[in-house]
Write a structure and sequence with these properties.
Elements lengths: L2 E4 L2 E4 L10 E2 L2 H21 L5 E7 L3 H17 L2 E7 L5 H13 L5 E4 L9 H6 L12 H9 L12 H12 L8 E5 L6 H8 L7 E5 L5 H9 L3 E4 L17 E4 L2 E5 L6 E5 L11 E3 L5 H20 L6
């Protein structure tokens, strides 16, 4: 597609009626590349007697959570990170959950850890997360770390663990050289794990995007207008095929994050659908698909947080 230069950056021409086939932002291939980089870092740490370790606290027997935690430990094995799993029954009380968290806080084998959500009914997830040692916060969602992100304290230097999905989105866009500085980004969905922290990351010094955050209070027609004018659209609402081709400016980058699960009427199997209609690929310049885009990036960003927190816990290790 032809382009024109505006104040030093290139913006796709929108008046061409020719169809576009979007370039795929391949999260699986990018995550594999990052894993190779992490293997080198973990090998260097181990040569100094430092073994990064990921702890997981799983409460109850939710099938989705069990699959997610098992995948995390497989990822760890691939790059040389030790796994420290901790499980509690679904009958566990809040005090037992908090005692387990304190155990992970004290465990010297644990560089970082996650409390797998959702917790069973009757347990307080906010109270549990607040008890995590911020220096072992693998998900980057502890209130102290989110507060540092708001204040831009150390976050640009990698000294604060970043929320994994937002960090994965930025990393994928960066590695495919999708420009963000001075561009308009429309983030659809204001959840605490994606939309809100992503807005903070996009406006950090060095990224410097202009962000519009669309949420449940935004009228649908206005949401469409906001998305249509954006250079980058991030769909994280959890609404099947919400973003249609007429929501996207030709040549824009579209990142599909939201997940809807439904049963395939032909096979009876559960399938995963994203927030972005498949027809968007005929309009956009780049598309991060779902699945295959941000999911693998979220998982590998967790590993990167573990390695970075292990490095930070041992200042001067590579001197």
């Amino acid at each position: 597609m032809r382009s024109r230069s505006t104040r030093g950056w290139t913006r796709p021409v929108t008046r061409s009626p020719e169809p576009v086939t979007a370039r795929i932002l391949d999260g699986r291939a990018t995550a594999a590349e990052i894993k190779r980089e992490l293997i080198e870092r973990v090998t260097a740490l181990r040569s100094k007697g430092i073994v990064p370790g990921l702890g997981t606290l799983l409460v109850g027997d939710d099938p989705g959570s069990e699959i997610y935690v098992a995948a995390k430990h497989r990822d760890c094995a691939e790059v040389g990170i030790d796994s420290i799993p901790l499980t509690l029954p679904s009958t566990a009380r809040q005090a037992e959950v908090e005692t387990a968290i304190e155990r992970l806080n004290r465990d010297s084998r644990v560089s970082a850890y996650i409390v797998q959500l959702p917790l069973p009914d009757g347990l307080d997830p906010v109270g549990a997360l607040a008890r995590i040692d911020p220096s072992k916060d693998a998900d980057g969602l502890h209130p102290d770390n989110l507060g540092r992100l708001v204040l831009s304290l150390d976050s640009a230097q990698g000294l604060v663990p970043l929320p994994c999905t937002p960090a994965g989105i930025l990393e994928l866009l960066h590695r495919y050289q999708v420009p963000l500085r001075g561009r308009e980004v429309c983030v659809i969905g204001a959840g605490v794990t994606v939309g809100r922290p992503l807005s903070l990351l996009l406006t950090r010094r060095g990224v410097d995007a202009t962000v519009t955050l669309v949420h449940r209070g935004t009228p649908p027609e206005h949401a469409r207008e906001l998305a249509r004018r954006a250079d980058v659209v991030v769909a994280a609402a959890g609404a099947k095929h919400l973003v249609r081709p007429d929501w996207v400016r030709p040549g824009a980058a579209v990142v599909d994050v939201g997940i809807t699960r439904e049963t395939d009427p032909e096979t009876g199997r559960s399938r995963q659908l994203g927030d972005v209609d498949p027809g968007v690929r005929e309009v956009a310049g780049w598309v991060a698909p779902n699945p295959g885009g941000i999911g693998p990036m979220t998982r590998v960003m967790l590993l990167r947080n573990v390695v970075e927190l292990a490095e930070r816990a041992h200042p001067g290790w590579n001197a």
